Automatic annotation (TrEMBL):
It comes from Hucho hucho. Residues 1-88 form the Cdc37 N-terminal domain. This is Hsp90 co-chaperone Cdc37. One of its GO terms (cellular component) is cytoplasm. Residues 19-53 are annotated as: Disordered.
Length: 88
């Protein structure tokens, strides 16, 4: 789960950088040679971001399901209690 979050953050950072580069290029209006590559990279990064968001939701769902199942499990009372006294 932590790995998924880390990857998602990395991809979100890349998407943000590529979007900012696109805005700068639009302001300059002169650069057309790198625009195609940037758009391709941006679309790939957005697809990765979507995939990692889906993975993260899936992991969160599994964790919540595990917690619910764990609550349903009976406690092993024998390990929690101890003998008060014993007859010898």
């Amino acid at each position: 789960m932590a790995e998924c979050k880390r990857r998602l953050e990395e991809v979100q950072y890349r998407v943000k950088e590529l979007e900012e580069e696109g805005k700068k290029e639009l302001e300059e209006e002169g650069k057309k040679e790198g625009e195609e590559e940037r758009k391709t990279a941006l679309s790939k990064a957005q697809a990765e971001e979507k995939k990692y968001r889906k993975d993260q939701r899936l992991w969160e769902k599994k964790m919540e399901e595990h917690r619910r199942e764990e609550k349903k499990m009976p406690w092993n009372v024998d390990t929690l209690s101890k003998e008060g006294f014993s007859k010898i």
